[in-house]
Amino acid sequence: MNGTTRTTYKKVQPAVCREDLPGAATLPSPSATRKCPPCNPGMAKDAKGICVFCPAEHFSQGDACVRCPVETVPNYGYEYVQWDTLPPNIVTRCEYISEGTFGLCYLNLCCYQRPAPMLADVSTACNVGEAWLASGTALVSAPSLQKGIALEMELTIAEGFSNPMAPRDQPASPQAPVAHFSIVFETSCADSSCVLYMIESFLFKVAFLRSGSTSGDDSVIDQARILSMNVTNVGTKEGIQGGGASRCLPCPSGQFGKCIPCPPGHFMTPGTHECVLCPPNTVANASSDRVGIESCVVCGENLHSLDGVACRSEGLLSVVRDNRTLNYDLSSWVKKTWTTTAVKVFAREGASYYHSFNFSLFGEKVQCKEVYDSSDAFSVNDQSRETVAGAACRLTVLPDIGSNHTKLAFVSPLLLANRLEEISLRRNRDGWKLTDQLLEYGLHISLISSPNCSAHCKKSNSEGVEEASRPIDVHFWFDSVGVPSEACPRGNALVITARCTPSKKQPEVRLPHTCPDGTCDGCLFHAIAESVQACPICGIGDYDMIRGECVDGQQTIHYIPDKHCVLTGKEAQSRKEACSVLSQKERVFLGFGVTMFVILCFALIIICQRNRRLEYKYTRLVESRNGELPTAETCGLEDDEDDEAADRVIFAKGKRKIFGGRDTEAFVPLENED
Fold first, then answer.
1. What is the pLDDT of residues 355-374, one digit of tens each?
2. Contact (Cβ atoms closer than 8 angstroms) between residue 32 and residue 6
3. How buried is 81 (Cβ within 10 angstroms: 0-12 exposed, 13-18 middle, 19+ buried)?
4. Furthest-apart CA pair in the chain: how many Å?
5. What CA–CA distance (Å, rounded) separates 260 from 265?
6. Most buried residue among 59, 376, 476, 621 by CB atoms closer than 10 A?
7. Which residues form a coiled coil (predicted)?
8. What ranges in 528-627 are assigned the alpha helix state H?
């Protein structure tokens, strides 16, 4: 009071100890007064020194309330980090529990999407005073000698929630939540049976069960400490704003200076407060403040986005395997949904149940809804039949209670995935791993190994043929959902494997034979989609070409794909082209023969021409030996003689051409004999 506080002490309830006996411990005196620490964010002290929420359009870090700057909007909420007093909208109480209460929940922190009847078996309220005590740095569970109790704390948010930064036409979803609730706590317990529960609603309830409380043997030394609580985006009720703002968020300004949220897929620039579309193949993180380009998240492998809202795929994929690019065409799967069932399980009494799974690979929403006859035993909660929707979900199917057992009841829907995040060959992602058992790779190896093979032989076989014997798989990775638990620290995840199976013309989704209920550990769920459509598209060198018989100048050419690829509809599996009645070898031999004939003819002509030339030279040689021509006395003309053509006798020496004729322009003088 008046800005000061002090620490006081009370007896542990129920008070069973006496102070009037010798040596009894007495109740400590209150501590000296001290100055109060700052208020919680979004609050400030009033004239009486009491912390109250700041008015609308104001914010505070625990001291004075300040009006938000221009082009900003206050981020209203409840942020409790100081615990000198109990906040105004928090109440505490204690209740008895009976054995079996909370029996279905064994987690350290349980969150329900709707109010759960967790204290349905409560008999009477217990009286321990305040069940949670403000100790300055934390809200601590009160010590008590009562047995079989639950220490509860309730945070009421009557104003609802409103996100001023969310696009007005964007529906709420796990990827685009309206608000966030976070709690930081620690427990100190005698054993692992102590539990801290949380139930979601507009009223948030936190219940602490000490070790052994369900059996009535509570550990009185157990303690839970809540260090901080934070609720964001609190709305208004009847014109009254709920909560207080610890900060003001920048926002784009519209007409009259009002804050206009950016459209879906856009982010706001820090300096100019302008809305800008996220770059291609990125999406805006709807759970962030969407300020700066860093709020745009890159799409996963083989996914793309042009609107910045969601990452999608049209079914055309490309992956690299063994330094070779494989292309897939799964466009026919884009708007399809599949349903498959797990193995049937029988109870000792003979009753059976099984799980039914609904899947969608490329963004189509599937739904799992509780369906049963309102006249049967399930009609206890007939007004609250649960429905989940997303990319994949699971239902528990059991025979409807009746005389003929022909009806089925669908209960306990479980959401397995919200959206597709990646299509790749990876077997490890975000801590999840596809084992050989899930992928049935061990079965493929055992079928190849001979039963008579020795241990060393089997090892060699597994090392040598394992990779070659494995089917060609492409894995569809979905987002993780569910609440983390001791058994599943990362919640639940789903992977669907598209497996190349040339023998199956129509796609079929099934569960692994090695894990017939869809999961081997209860956390990672897996399904296999088998089809010839899941085989890669044949490229150059991926098929054999077979030529048919030449009929009437036309020949049919058939393309036979390898076992690991398929031909698309765009490329015909056979085509016709012009052909000759002669085979390829016959055409080669015929061409070779014609070429040799031409060469021989050419050589014969040359030989004949040479023969005629030699014959002519021989004839001239004979004539020159037997002729009686006068012998020339001199080799040249005297100075006073004229060169007259009539006084000379010459013989023409003709140069024979290749194809007949004689060159008459060249003359050789014939010398006179002596």
1. 999 999 998 899 999 887 76
2. yes
3. middle
4. 181
5. 15
6. 476
7. none
8. 584-626
